[in-house]
Every structure is written in structure tokens, then in C-alpha cells.
Amino acid sequence: MLCAQVNFVYNDNSMGTVANIVRTKFAVGELIHHKLFDYRGVIADVDRNFQASEVWYQAVARSRPPKDQPWYHVLVHGSDHSTYVAERNLEADSTVDPVEHPLVEQFFDQFENGKYTRRGSNN
User: Does a structural domain hold residue 21?
Assistant: First the structure.
């Protein structure tokens, strides 16, 4: 399975130039597998870098993944919770089966060819 690459471009308003570009390995709607905890899920949102609190990071992110790289909001298959995961802990899911999660329909319109389409998206 090929992974989409999304570029986030942030403009420096004072200079009118590109401040930085962050490349992500996964996009919203893609199926993933967590390498450390062996669960699968679907990407519901992407942050260009870590956005949770330092308290959360110290308590939950025990492998101490980098904060300056992409982090993902993931709906976990077969459960009713979501997770916040650093990119380095994710890989593409090898199955093309849909994710069973009660919030899938709130985020996505359809599931086709192993990928979800974001609700309200024209793609």
C-alpha cells in the first residue's frame, strides 16, 4: 500500500514567505497500524507537530517520540476510543477492511478501496 504524503505550508505573515514545510506520511482517512501496540485504526486528523500538554507527553508518550514531527488523531478499530500517536509509531495497515468505531460516520462519508473519504470533502 502506498502512503500519501501531505505537505503543510505555513506562511510567515510578517515576511510573506514560507516559514516551514512539514511532510506527513499519512493523510486523513488512511488506515494505519500501530507498530508498538499492535492495533489498527483510521487517521481522523493530523497535527504538524505535537499539540497535547507536557503533562500528557510525560505520562503517556513513554517512548518519547519527537514533538517536532507529525502526530495523528486515530480512531481505534474495535473500540470506542481514539489515540494521539507520533508518526514514527505508525505504519500503513496491510488490510483493506473498514475500521469499526462509533465515530467513523461523524468523520467520514464512505469507505472505498481501503480508504475513507472525509465528510464534506469533494474528493
Answer: no
Instruction: Report if residue 9 sits inside a domain.
Output: no
Beta strands in 1-123 (DSSP E): 6-12, 17-24, 31-34, 40-47, 71-76, 82-86, 90-92, 108-112, 115-118
Residues 6 or more apart whose CB falls under 8 angstroms from that of 117 comprise 29, 108, 109, 110, 111, 123
17-42 pLDDT per residue, tens: 455 666 899 999 999 999 999 999 99
* Containing structural domain, residue 92: 26-118
Does residue 20 belong to any structural domain of this protein?
Answer: no
Q: What is the pTM of this model?
A: 0.80
Give residue-wise pLDDT tens across range 58-81: 999 989 999 999 999 999 999 999
Task: Specify the number of domains making up the chain.
Answer: 1
Q: What is the CATH number of the domain that holds 46?
A: 2.30.30.390
Are 37 and 74 within 8 A, CB to CB?
A: no
